[in-house]
Amino acid sequence: MAVMRVVPDLKSAALDRAKAFYTAVLGLRVVMDLGWIVTLADPDRPGVQVSLMTHDATAPVTPAASVEVDDVDAAYAAAVAAGAEIVHPLTDEPWGVRRFFVRDPDGHVLNVLAHR
Q1: Are 75 and 85 spatial neighbours (Cβ–Cβ below 8 Å)?
Q2: What's this model's pTM, rounded to 2 decimal places?
Q3: Which of 59, 71, 84, 103 has the fewest beta carbons under 10 Å from its own?
């Protein structure tokens, strides 16, 4: 299992205001907008991203970061074997990802995912 990218997930009370800030100040562009989560990326380096979230549509908490891996099932098995707290079970989401949430030793929740 390899990590493909890590994207910070920032909680936002006003997505439109936050989008305007990140596009005007940092020059990022919207690459995904599901209404409750917006992902912005650098137009010249699409892997450089930040996500803004009001909440999570199917999970009980807003994660601190999203970690894309090449094998989410292997990552899930490793988390369970390590005795880590699974906050949201391994799930196939309607927006095209398979993911789970895990809590790290300091209490940060990570959204571990792979695109289907």
Answers
A1: no
A2: 0.90
A3: 71
Range of the domain at 67: 3-115
Cα three-residue angle 101-105-109, rounded to 5 degrees: 25
CATH number (domain holding residue 54): 3.10.180.10
Mean pLDDT in residue range 87-112: 97
**Total residues belonging to the chain:** 116
The two three-digit tokens of residue 43, written as one number = 């137009």
- Please count the structural domains in the chain: 1
Name which of 46, 29, 64, 51 is nearest 95 in CA terms: 51
pLDDT at site 16: 95
Rounded CA separation 65/3 (Å): 13
